[in-house]
Write the C-alpha cells for this entry.
Amino acid sequence: DDAASDNHFIVESQEKIIYLTLQVRSSSLPTTICCTEALLRNNPKAPFSMLRLLLLSAICTAIPVNAAIRRTSLSGVSRSTTPHRSTKEFGRKKRMLRLSKFTTTATAGFTESSYDDDNGYKKASERRFGDSDWPQYGTKYLPKQTIERAERGNKIEKLKLEKCGSAAFEEVHEFAAAIREGTTTWEDLDIDDADVRLKWAGLFHRRKRTPGRFMMRLKVPNGLLTSDHMRFFADTVGIYPADVGVIDITTRQNIQLRGIELQDMTELIDGLQMRGLSNVQSGMDNVRNLVGSPIAGIDPEELVDTRDIAKDIDAMITNDGKGNPKLANLPRKFNIAVSGSRDDFAHTSINDIGLRPCPNKESGEMGFNVIVGGYFSIKRVMESIPMDIWIKAEDAARFCEAVLLYFRDNGSRGDRQKARLIWLIEDMGMEGFRQAISDKYDEMFPKKKGGAAIPAQPEPWAVAAGTNTPTQPHKKRDILGVHSQKQEGLSWVGINVPAGRILPDEAMALADIADKYSQGEIRLTVEQNVIFPNVNNTKVSELLQEPLFNIGHYFIPKTDKDFPLSRGLVSCTGSQFCGVALIETKNRAIELSKRLEEELKVDMPVRIHWTGCPNSCGQAQVADIGLMGGPARVEKEIDGKVKKVAVEGVNIFLGGKVGEDPFLGEVYKKGVPADYKYLIPIMKDILKEKFGAMEK
C-alpha cells in the first residue's frame, strides 16, 4: 500500500505554483524525467523549480509514505483522510502524471487553467473589485430604468440593490478567513449574505437540514471532467462526516459538492480554478450550467460537436470562470442547452434558450434553429417555442449574450414567478421580441450585422427526400452500455450512477478506471450518469469486469432489457439536504426501482423521475413516470378513532417525452402516500397497463 500511494507536493517558483502528483515506486526515475520535461516545456523560466522537483522525487523514492494522506486546511487544523475504499476493495491503479494547472486534455475538449506570462498567475482568492476582472459590481451595469423597476420590485431585487450578489465573488474569501481566524462564526454572518448572496459564489447554505454546512454547485460546461477533477472532489468532501460529505451529479450535467464548511472555501475555490473549473454564478439570478451532448465528438450520428460551443458560451457568461458582474444581475435564473444530434441529449425543450442543430438550406453550413422559453416552476411549466431564427454555430455565444443582456435590462423585476424569459416574450409578442434581439445583436456586433435575423431553416430529415411525406420519428437512443464511436476501434461505455449520488471512495474508483481505460476523461449526462469515452475495443471486456460495476450498485447494462427501471432513474436532492423538498427522494427512488424490478418482468426501459417539490428540479414532467413530492393523507387509528393524518406523498405524472418530438407529461394521480405499501401497488398497475409489465 505504501509503494502505491500518492504524494502531493507544491513546487513553487517566483512566478508559478505547480501542483504535481508523483507515483511513489522504486522505478520513479522515468516518472521524474517525464515530470521534468513537462515542467520545462510549460515553465522554461523556472530551472530552480526543476531542481527542487528532482530533489523531492529522489527523497520520495527512498522514503515510503503512509497510505493515509494528510490534508491540512487553511485554518491550520490538520485533517486526516483515511484511504478510500477504492484503495483496498477496488484496487488502486497506477495514476497518470498530473500537472493539474498546465495539462491540456485534448480528448476531453478540456483545457485547464493557463498561465499568463505577462500578468502572472492570480488565484481566485486574490481577485478584488476594481481590478480588470471585476471593474464594478453587477448592479452598476443596470440601466437607470431597470434600477427604477428593481426599486419597486420584489424583495430579492431590493436585497440586490442593497448589496449586489456579485460581491460574493470576493466576500466568500473574507468570510472564510474571518472564520479561520476565529473573529466570527457562520452564525454571525448576515442572513442575507449566508443564505442568498453566497449563491453567486455557488454556495447554498442548508440552514434547515445541515446548519453551518454548504453545498457548492460548480460550472462544468458540457459535463466534461477528468480523473483529476474526480479525485479533487473526493478529497474535498471526504474530510467531512460520511452522512453529509457526498458528490451529486445534477440534471444539468453538473456537480454539487455537499457538506462543506465555509472556512474551507478559499482552498476549494482556488483548487477548482487551478483545475480549470469554476463555482461562480451557479445559483440565484444567473445562468446555470451549459448543457451539451455527452457523446460530443464521438457520436456516429452527430450533427454538431457541442463541446467548444458550450465552453465558449460559458466563458462569455462567467468571464472565463473568474466571475462576470456584467451578467450577474439577471431578473431570474436562466438555462441554456446546445443539442448535437436529433436525439437532443441536452433536452433543449426545457431551457430558456435551446440551440437545435440544422444545416442552412442554401449554404449547407451547420448551425442552429433557436427555441426559447422552456422552464419549470411551482406555478407553471412550459416547453420551449420556436423563435424562427437560425444562427451560425460560430455566433452562438454572441447570440446568447445579446439575449441575456436584453433580458437583464428588460425582464420583470416584480413577481419572481413571472420573471423568467417566457413572460417577457409573451408581453412583447414573439415578433417584437425577435426584432428586439436582432437589433441588440447588430448593436453589439456590427461586423456580424444580420447574424440574428436569418429565419429558421427547414430540417432536411423532417420529410423524405424529394417528397412531402414526413419521415418516421427519430427514437432517442439510450447511451448507457457499450457503443461504437465514429472513431474506428473505440467505444464509449455508459455507466449507471444510481440517482446520481457518488461517495468519495466511489469517485476515486471512477477516476482510476478513467485513467486506465479512457485517458482520464469522464463525462456527465443529464440523466445523472457517467460516460467513459474513447475506450479501446480490446479493453472493453476488461472494463466491464471492474469490481465497481459488479458489486450490485453501479452497473453497465448489456442489453436493452437490463435494469429497465433503474437505468433511467433520475432524482433531485430531496429532503435529506434540501429545505424546500417535501419528501426524501434519492434513497426512496433507488429502493422502489429495485423492488419493482425484483417483482416484475419489464421488457423495455422506463424512465422514472423523482422530484421533491413542485419546483421540479428532478424534471418529473419529462419522464415516462414522474413522481413529485406533495401532500397525502392516510387513515390511522388515534385514541380509538379512525382519522386522516398527513404523510409524505407524491403526485404521479405520465407521458413525458424527450428527444426530437418532446412532450410534457400530465398529472395521472394526486396525493398518493409515498410509503411502499401504498406506492408499489399503484406503480405496478401503471407499469402493467402502460408498459406491458408482468408479474415474475
Observations:
- The CA atoms of residues 346 and 631 lie 32 Å apart.
- The longest helix spans residues 47-62.
